[in-house]
Amino acid sequence: MTKASLAEAAAKTFQTPFGAVLELRPDGGAPVFIDGRTTPPKTSEAAPAPADSVWRGPSDVMLRVVASKRAVENAVINGRLVIAGDMSVMARLKLSS
User: Fold this and answer.
1) Strands annotated E in the chain
2) Residue 52: closest CA among 30, 14, 10, 24
3) Does a structural domain hold residue 94?
4) Is residue 76 part of a domain?
5) How far is C-alpha 10 from the chain's CA centre?
6) Which tens digit of pLDDT belongs to each residue from 63-85?
7) Where residue 11 sits, what CATH number does that domain have?
8) How far apart are the C-alpha atoms of 33 and 25, rounded to whole Å?
9) For position 74, what pLDDT does the model report?
């Protein structure tokens, strides 16, 4: 997975503001930031502000989750995706497919 493919998937998936900054940190890869404080949310390589929530996991799982091909809940329950920080961000997310 390339950083560009994660950023592209995130830009398509995160279309609704959620009032926070989300950091997607794939194992062995550079992070991608989603600024959910804007309409529509903006994807960037640099942190627009400290991340409120951080998702960590294998790059292939991260890409599937962000591309809405795998439910976030299933990835977390199976231990493939770790979410840290403000958990209320999860309740505000609306993922587009």
Assistant:
1) 21-26, 32-35, 42-44, 53-57, 82-85
2) 24
3) no
4) yes
5) 7
6) 988 886 567 888 989 999 999 99
7) 3.30.1050.10
8) 9
9) 87
